Amino acid sequence: EALAQSYPAKPIRIIVPFPAGGTTDIVARLVAQRMSESMVQPVLVENRGGAGGAIGADAVAKAAPDGYTILMHNITFPLSSVAQTLAKRSPFNVDTDFAGISIAVNVPFVLTAHPSVPAKDLRELAALLQKNRSLQYTYGSTGPGSVMNVIGETLKRDARIDMTHIPFKGAAPLKQELIAGRLNIGGDQLSSSLAEIRAGTLRALATHSSRRIPSLPDVPTVRELGFPALEIEGWNGLFAPAKTPKEIIDRLQRETAAAVRHPDMQKRLADLGAEPVGSSPAEQEAILRRQMDQFRAVIREMKLD
Prior knowledge:
The chain is 45% helix and 19% strand. The chain has helices at residues 2-6, 23-39, 54-61, 76-86, 94-97, 122-131, 147-159, 171-180, 190-199, 246-261, 263-272, 281-302, and strands at 12-16, 43-47, 69-74, 98-106, 109-113, 138-141, 164-167, 185-189, 203-207, 235-241, 275-276. It is globular and about 65 Å long.
């Protein structure tokens, strides 16, 4: 109890394992701003991109379990951990090296294409590549075992098509190449590409949520288009190093939930196409387990290492 009262006694760092500009970075900065106000200590965001998020995650796994270094990650975390574990070369173990704090927000995942791609949705893209085997299409992801890599490989399997995987260090450089037309297909959490979809510089081919997204009501879901295995709920959540005291985890969870549910935040999140969650650590763990189980077979099959 005394520990919880004296915490935090110095600034807290949220490590984002991707370059600045992606959804995870934006959400981390919004949450950090609100937490700084309520915790009366600065909450700072530090970007450590590379290796599909593994470099930043590893730094947190090895940090002191005192609540002063925490991780903001996304759905790539459980997926890449499955890939790394199967490849027997992960520097950390998601199950044993981290303590969950909270799923802060849900952010739908959207599959996008450069407007030069002559397909208005995912079903048309599949048909196009089935018919024209000579088309050398590329799809981008934020690294091996990342969400977009898993989606791309699952799509290749289910649609019986071929595309070349191009990995990037983060969502921002991937989006630049996609907008420039040097990449055919990409995908990310909605907030990274909503402005470009609305402007017409990117085309949304499908959303991966279980229902249509209010901010993109005309874009069908993957299930509607005949690809139910591609359904996946995107999120951003906070993690601490394992062995962080429960009182500190509980304090951080309460602060996260209060931050995302704050009226000012709700509006900012809605503009991003994100919805506030603020889950408990137990709820967060249940979501991670389900998603790891959902894609384990695909990742094993695809040999994503």
